[in-house]
Design brief:
Number of strands: 16
Helix content: 25-40%
Oligomer: single chain
Number of helices: 14
Mean pLDDT: 90
Largest sheet: 9 strands, mixed
Radius of gyration: 29 Å
Strand content: 15-25%
Low-confidence stretches: 214-225
């Protein structure tokens, strides 16, 4: 058994797909544009340029907070976060610190073999501006400020993870929610969603080893409230753009830090990068503390004051979220949890599935009971091409669902054989247990490999069971 328990929290940055940037009128779509062609005095931090907040970005950040079960703070403000780095033209970033837009939320994730709960606490959801982008060419570093000022939502979790598998599950669920909200394309390859795990190891001493699992279990059951002291250090791995890379980076860090701790040393509190080809992290710089950023309220932007009516209007625009859709698919259509998850994780596929159901009902065709299960199966297992329109798919499904004409004499012989093989059930049926009709039909369909009309089977069975 390991001497250490991983303690992992996440910071996730999501670029919002607004038309303009966070504090100016520059186009927020900077991808593939000529370097430094999409800038103005505001996003370049020129003296005297005044920022004006993007109302849509604020509404979308609130929407994300509501989808993550956060408390939306009716009074929040922007702050200046000071640090000097080449991609930050003002030498400070307009962000939020002690009064964010949203805080104290949670997100449930699919349970795994490793976790004791499926509820992860969300510390905060806040708005800030993105930085420029550095490109390193040989010994030179080139900076492109096209991205500078793009609206960025930061989602911060509590350190409620103790394994990389659950981190991956959380990120996948969050990514799906963001896509459902239609506030970002969340394209990880293009950097629209970036992951920064904070990782440390907590030592389990011999005296604590026995009750460690009980302690963690009790902690998780009480809404994940921490009941142990956090390690005196943490390592942040920056700007990971893949769920699998996040998982591998965490697993690498756990092994690296354990080796250092086993030597009686403490890992450095630092920021590290992840090298995808080497599957290893590498040191970038020492990690700053909050006081190092010298936060203070942004003097050029007044506080954000929200009314109950404004919050209600945003909440009314929330769509059905992935967890709600999965639950509805299971309850209403009888789908297996795994199938519901596969359909709901892509909104376009989920909408395609429901449009097919509507098309079939409109055609008023005689089809099998629980036909939705068979549609889901046809989509997931590609039994019918999803390149077809919903109407074409529905027509193809109905065509394939029609029973194959089978000689009535053959079916009659199969029924006689099944009734002779099940005398106990025949006697029970004749004694009044008519629900056994379903059993007999099922046995006949099994023997006929589904190639018979259930109505014909029911008619012949009723005659023979008199």
């Amino acid at each position: 058994m390991s001497k250490y328990t991983p303690v992992i929290g996440l910071e996730i940055h999501v670029e919002l797909a607004t038309i303009s940037k966070m504090f100016c009128q520059c186009d927020a779509d900077f991808f593939d544009k000529k370097p430094n062609s999409n800038t103005c005095p505001v996003c370049l931090g020129m003296p005297g340029a005044l920022p004006v907040p993007n109302r849509t970005a604020i509404e979308w950040a609130i929407k994300i907070g509501q989808a993550l079960n956060c408390t939306i703070n009716t009074h929040s403000k922007f702050d200046r976060k000071h640090y000097f780095y080449p991609d930050l033209p003002k030498a400070y970033q307009i962000s939020q610190y002690d009064e964010p837009l949203a805080s104290q939320g949670w997100l449930e994730i699919p349970k795994s073999k490793l976790q004791m709960t499926n509820k992860i606490r969300i510390t905060r959801v806040h708005l800030e501006e993105d930085t420029g982008k550095l490109t390193h060419v040989g010994k030179d570093s080139l900076v492109d400020f096209n991205r500078s000022g793009v609206p960025l939502v930061e989602i911060v979790t509590e350190p409620d993870f103790d394994n990389a598998e659950d981190v991956k599950a959380f990120l996948e669920e969050l990514h799906t929610i963001i896509k459902y909200l239609n506030v970002s394309d969340a394209n990880m390859e293009e950097g629209s969603m970036r992951i920064e795990p904070n990782i440390s190891l907590r030592e389990i001493t011999k005296s604590k080893l026995q009750n460690s699992n009980k302690l963690q279990s009790a902690s998780r059951r009480t809404n994940n409230k921490q009941r142990f002291e956090l390690p005196k250090y943490k390592v942040e791995v920056k700007n990971i753009n893949s769920f699998n890379f996040a998982k591998r980076a965490i697993e690498y860090e756990i092994k690296r830090q354990a080796k250092i701790l086993n030597k009686g040393e403490t890992p450095a509190q630092e920021t590290r990068g992840y090298n995808e080809s080497k599957k290893a992290t590498y040191s970038q710089r020492s990690k700053e503390e909050a006081q190092d950023y010298r936060y203070f309220p942004e003097p050029d932007i007044p506080p954000i004051v929200l009314s109950d009516n404004e919050l209600r209007m945003v909440k009314d625009k929330l769509p059905e979220l992935p967890a709600q859709k999965r639950q509805r698919y299971s309850k209403k259509y009888g789908l297996k949890e795994s199938d519901a998850k596969l359909l709901a994780r892509d909104l376009s596929i989920a909408e395609y599935f429901e449009e097919i159901i509507m098309q079939i009902r409109n055609l008023n065709s005689e089809i099998r009971d629980k036909f939705e299960i068979h549609i889901a199966n046809a989509i997931i297992n590609k039994k019918i091409s999803t390149d077809l329109s919903p109407e074409e798919f529905a027509q193809k499904f109905i065509e394939l669902s029609k029973p194959v004409e089978i000689n009535e004499n053959k079916v009659s012989k199969v029924i006689t054989s099944i009734l002779e093989s099940n005398p106990k059930q025949v006697a029970q049926y004749k004694a009044g247990k008519t629900g056994l009709m379903g059993f007999f039909i099922g046995q006949v369909m099994k023997e006929m490999k589904g190639k018979a009309d259930p109505k014909m089977i029911h008619k012949l069975l009723t005659t023979k069971l008199l």
